[in-house]
């Protein structure tokens, strides 16, 4: 985008960035909901899923949005009105800031900053505050319990996620996401540079830890204790209805899409496909499509686990994070550091 | 907005001029921070106070980014907003839970806390004015992450290691205090 935007006024540039950002958040989120939540889940359960709205149910999303927009905006009597209303926005802000760090081509990026991936991990932690606000302001015991569970879980799994990314950072030698993609595109595996060096090969342990941590950060099964329908009546979402519920819903799936894109960028080479020079102008056209394809591949795994695994117990969840994933990712960092110095 | 300008490569620090947009942004952020800081200590609701603290800390992060200290700004968000305030909120909600105004008034502490805050403000302001009275911000390029890393792990390696050991000691101390058996 940098080339296209070079000679525009600041306000024009910002408007374009905002619009592209909006599309980049909503389009993948809608794709995930239709492709995986509506269709894949149905096929796994031997049913067809939504079929009425549009050909093969493809307009079901629009119907759902229309449905939510018509619903009454219910505010619990004892709720803290302002915080109750602000909470979904805080969650969405975190999602929209997160998309900024993902590049979609050599010149297609929102921000190209030194801190790159560090910034992404920092803003992704803001959503916890939104969840706590939602749970507390609802003044319902189910909501509060859900929010507390969510916080305990998100704090526990943010650590292995950050530590898993550290391996990639050591190998690439930079925090800048665009340079991490370039390092993978121009890298070599034992002198063979035909497919670049996607870090999923050398950082496979980190990739697995990252995926597990993302699953927990998204509070999806098997880590869905914060929203457990059968115990907590969907936790911090209990009191939300209509548009505000829709915002949480969009936030959840947009975050799933963006985390998948982040995993694809860090471990699968991002917008790069082997066979072309990474600086080729063609990538400004096919880059977003390549990234979308890789994102869908990662999201497929995330949703596969979501639909097939039963829920953990709360103590098992904490044990997995603190006793397995964090030590494992620390070992991964040490080994990566040693190998980086040796080679 | 100014954050966008900073991040999109328009570099207010290297352009050598007084940047109006940057000054306006600083003024806005400062006003918001002052208001939130005042509300934080005057509100009767503990959760509201913690949320006002979030705004103050976010403002501090924004000012760091305005100054070109991008890494420090992001760290501010990650550590203070993402971890410390979340733990505050977590603790408040676990122990109080109930929604609404805290009726118990901490009147006997008000005088002392005002006194301590005032003294702290005087000492900090005195130290800052003493040290930086006529220093100017060098209009060099914003500090890069690599520079920050280099200085931490070469020039400041001993303070860094000392802080690491201190944090570890605090961690172990907290576990010892919290243990029942």
Give the helices and strands, then pairings.
The complex is a heterodimer of chains A (343) and B (181).
Chain A: H1 2-5, H2 10-44, H3 60-70, H4 81-98, H5 116-124, H6 127-137, H7 141-172, H8 177-186, H9 199-202, H10 204-217, H11 229-232, H12 242-267, H13 283-308, H14 314-342
Helix pairs in contact in A: 2-12, 2-13, 3-12, 4-5, 4-6, 4-12, 6-7, 7-10, 7-14, 10-12, 10-14, 12-13
Chain B: H1 2-7, H2 20-42, H3 46-66, H4 70-95, H5 107-132, H6 145-153, H7 157-178
Helix pairs in contact in B: 2-3, 3-4
Describe this structure in a few short sentences.
The complex is a heterodimer of chains A (343) and B (181). With 343 residues, chain A is mainly α.
What does this structure look like?
- The complex is a heterodimer of chains A (343) and B (181).
- Chain A is an all-alpha fold and 343 residues long.
- Chain A has one domain.
- Chain A has 14 helices and no strands.
- The mean pLDDT of chain A is 83.
- Chain B is mainly α.
- Chain B has two domains: 1-99, Four Helix Bundle (Hemerythrin (Met), subunit A); 144-181.
- Chain B has seven helices and no strands.
- Chain B has helices at residues 2-7, 20-42, 46-66, 70-95, 107-132, 145-153, 157-178.
- In chain B, helix 2 runs antiparallel to helix 3 and helix 3 runs antiparallel to helix 4 (70-95).
- The longest helix of chain B has 26 residues, at 70-95.
- Chain B is globular, with a radius of gyration of 20 Å.
- The termini of chain B are far apart.
- The A-B interface holds A 2, 10, 13-14, 17, 78-80, 83, 100, 111-115, 118-119, 121-123, 125-126, 128-129, 132-133, 135-137, 139, 144, 147-148, 151-152, 155, 158, 175 and B 1, 4-5, 7-10, 47-48, 51, 54, 70-71, 74-75, 77-78, 81-83, 85-87, 89-90, 93-94, 97, 99, 144-146.
